[in-house]
TrEMBL record:
Transmembrane segments: none annotated. It comes from Gossypium schwendimanii (Cotton). This is Alpha 1,4-glycosyltransferase domain-containing protein. It comes from the Eukaryota. Residues 283-405 form the Alpha 1,4-glycosyltransferase domain.
Amino acid sequence: MAAKNFGCRVVNRSKSPVVFMILFALLMFSMLADSIVSKISLESAAFNQKRDYQALQSPKVVRNIKRNVVFPLPLTVSKQNKIIRVDNEHGIGKFRRRRLPEYEIFTSDELTNKFHGRVLEFFNHGCEVHFFMTWIAKVGSFGRREIMAVESVFKAHPNGCLMILSRTMDSVQGYRILKPLLDRGFKVLAVAPDFPFLVKNTPAEAWLDDMKSGKKDPGEIPFAQNLSNLLRLAVLYKYGGVYLDTDFIVLRSFKGLKNTIGAQSIDVVSKNWTRLNNAVLVFDMNHPLVLKFIEEFALTFDGNKWGHNGPYMVSRVVRGVEGRAGYNFTILPPMAFYPVDWMKIGSFFKLPKDSAGWRWIEAKVWQLKRQTFGVHLWNKQSSKLMVEEGSVMGRLMAENCVLCKHVYSS
């Protein structure tokens, strides 16, 4: 009886033993080959998975390494990692490029396109002094301390105008925060800045393009801090006025100040300044020193060194141009804007423990009222401190507020 075997061939087993054996051998060989191929495929997949895993893990080490350090990485890397080859005196190395944080401040839209017109319109209403602040953070973070700083501006300058450069504050929630001041007739406005417009035709224009295209490393220092360092310079160069940090309490009018920067510290013997600071800047439009600041920022930017693009930057520039023709500016002593060092700011928030301490508070408040334009609070050190009623800061805040709510809160 014929039977169908192996597809469509019909074989008579009794008459074709040789053919049967050949076909059986072919079947066994086919099964063995499939097993070998499967094993090779599994081993290959495991090897590739392990290789990709190693490639993904290796760059994590780079985040804690200084930018100039070159060290070997696997030759084969996952496509998910952006690896840049760099040539230097030690040969070819690789590092992981940090991605630029996604900041809405870089976004151009219908709101930012109106920026220039809004600035001109706002300052065209008899402003005694033009003030600027920057806020590159969530609107909900604009708290009591920042409101106190804004209040102090208007306590000393009832007819002044304050513009807060901030996309997040230029919103319904931001308007609600500022409304109590607006209801009292004070001129304050939050405006989403047009960052590309502000740096256009300055040395920072190329810096911004390189940063957005990934040619520059934003660094490990919070990038918002460095954006604020540049934004304050750009807006002063474009329009002129007074820039203040949001942790600065104004005590006296700035009306008489012109092209001024403050020293943070001085040499106790020579009385020469040793470091300047950029928390307070007063400059005319198109001032050459501000342009020099912008140029230095763009050319020497380093996002891994705290203060390099801020206080240390203005110190470097002024040290290089001081005494040269064409620059006209004034350097005020620490008592003007930085009457207390950041390491000692805590003493301004606390009540004294004895009669000597009370006498010190009275003397300090008296001195500040007569010699100081304002007090920088060094928020990084003092933001969590409570303002104790009767302390130096308690006295100053209570006397320089206009809403006068939550004075004794952090």
